[in-house]
Amino acid sequence: MAVEPVFPSSGKRLFTALAALLGWAGLTIQLYLILHLRWTVDASLLGGLINFFSFFTVLTNTLVAVVLTCALNLRSSRGQRFFLQPWVSSGIAVSILVVGLAYSLLLRHLWHPQGWQFVADELLHDVMPLLFLVYWWCCVPKGRLGLRHVAGWMLYPLLYFAYVLLRGHVLGLYPYPFVDVDKLGYAQAFVNALGILAGFVLVALGIVGLDRWLGRRRA
């Protein structure tokens, strides 16, 4: 059942606006870097755009930026009401937290970005997960989540993994080394994906538990 969105007060609204700005800034910088690199090597810009949206990090940060923008109540719409439903915003909170945790545990040691790439990297993997968690804690209505929502949230990473396998089979390109079938084989790629899914479920259960606890306190 849909619920009416609750918009932040003045102080929270300022925080939400800043978080939204940083979210869109990180995505814009990353998109520019990808397209600029492809331009310099005379590669397809459309291919760069497709590659950009093939990362779970980018997709999830886009959802985060959309929620934060909707929370500013700049324009009332059906899409706004959808994204501001507690179960939707909470599912996105789970996903962005997994982005931050997975990057820190599995990917950070693999490269050392410099310059604007470092800025984009920090915004997308470190800053936005923390900012969106604060937004979720302070601005999303609590006490409305249940275990059934965890199953629904799992569809997002599962569908993404299916897309990654299909794209990799067709193009031979995988966005993350832990699901690179060409190097690891299907068995190890599935084991790695199941491990990340298990982490996703643990984070989701933590969010549901926090939601219930905060809901009782605020009641």
From TrEMBL:
Among InterPro entries, the record links this protein to: Pr6Pr-like
Give the UniProt keywords, A-Z. Membrane, Transmembrane, Transmembrane helix
Say if the entry is tagged with keyword Nuclease: no
Membrane spanning residue stretches? 14-37, 49-74, 86-106, 118-138, 150-166, 186-210
* Protein name (database record): Integral membrane protein
Record the organism. Answer: Pseudomonas chlororaphis
Task: Recite the lineage of the species.
Answer: Bacteria, Pseudomonadati, Pseudomonadota, Gammaproteobacteria, Pseudomonadales
